[in-house]
Specification:
This protein is of the alpha/beta class. It folds into 2 domains: 66 residues, Chemotaxis receptor methyltransferase CheR, N-terminal domain (Chemotaxis Receptor Methyltransferase Cher, domain 1, Orthogonal Bundle), CATH 1.10.155; 189 residues, 3-Layer(aba) Sandwich (Rossmann fold), CATH 3.40.50.150. 42% of the residues lie in helices and 18% in strands. The chain contains 11 helices and 10 strands. The chain has a 7-stranded mixed sheet with strand order 6-2-1-7-8-10-9. A 3-stranded antiparallel sheet has the order 3-5-4. The N and C termini lie far apart (54 Å).
């Protein structure tokens, strides 16, 4: 692809979604955007870009940006963050929010919904402890198409085999041919909304827990800083942030400090915790 065409797509994707596409990832442009090009009658990416430049087309631009985003997700991904949420974070929040009896959770870049639904299944398991509480899960993604899939909550055999404990499959899913449909009770615990992480999240409300896992790896340093600062502004003072195991806030922002009890888990605080400090 000529450098001018690559530069156009590079700048468009960074501006619209924060996605950083480097020259060594040229194959991603080809594999993910060629179906979009063919759908609209273009023979190659050059023709697609020429059309976008000649006549600005917002729906086509959105389609291009959505096609380039990674929507990889699975139930209880990496397991440890979910165990920590259930065993450490949730009990602590029940103490700290005893007066309000309300907890708000944000799953950012939720893709097809496995992450928020995993949390919802944990909450269903803790239903007795949560009696009289209002616990909200807000799940967002930049892609409208994957949000529609998430709302349907219908998963393939392959998807339910990736990380989902058999106990949860039996309790919360019903088989429909080759697919599995999640129960209404679990689906009703999650509200899905379109949201771009480059936008201000404060209109979504204030959150006690934020999961933004395996997203920052696609951003450059400037965008990581911007996104983390925005997230911190939408969190309670003692809120907890979950990142992917290979992601970190260290050297990027001082809005968060690592919680020793779990890798990839951060506490929103103005003062760095001591080495021995846990969640309490």
């Amino acid at each position: 692809m000529p450098s001018g065409y690559f530069a156009y797509l590079h700048d468009l994707l960074k501006q619209r979604s924060g996605l950083l596409v480097t020259p060594d990832k040229m194959y991603l442009l080809e594999t993910r955007l060629m179906p979009v090009a063919r759908k609209h009658g273009y023979r190659n990416l050059q023709e697609l870009v020429d059309a976008m430049v000649a006549v600005p087309d917002e729906p086509l631009t959105v389609e291009v940006c959505e096609a380039m985003n990674t929507h990889e997700s699975l139930f209880f991904r990496d397991q440890a963050p979910f165990e920590m949420f259930q065993e450490t974070i949730l009990p602590e929040l029940l103490k700290r929010r005893a007066a309000q009896r309300r907890i708000r959770i944000w799953c950012a870049a939720c893709a097809t919904g496995q992450e928020p639904y995993s949390l919802a299944m944990i909450l269903e398991q803790e239903v007795k402890r949560l009696e009289g509480w209002k616990v909200e899960i807000i799940a967002t993604d930049i892609s409208h198409s994957v949000l529609e899939r998430a709302k349907e909550a219908v998963f393939s055999q392959f998807e339910v085999q990736r990380g989902l404990p058999m106990q949860y499959l039996v309790e919360h899913f019903k088989q429909e041919g080759e697919y599995w449909r999640l129960s209404r009770a679990i689906r009703d615990r999650v509200r899905f909304r379109p949201f771009n992480l480059l936008d201000d999240p404060r209109p979504l409300g204030r959150f006690d827990v934020v999961m933004c896992r395996n997203v920052l790896i696609y951003f450059d340093m400037e965008t990581k800083t911007r996104v983390l600062h925005a997230i911190s502004g939408a969190m309670a003072e003692d809120g907890v942030l979950f990142l992917g195991s290979s992601e970190s806030t260290i050297g990027i922002t001082e809005d968060f400090w690592p919680v020793e009890a779990g890798r990839g888990v951060y506490k929103r605080t103005d003062t760095p915790p001591s080495v021995a400090e846990q969640m309490n």
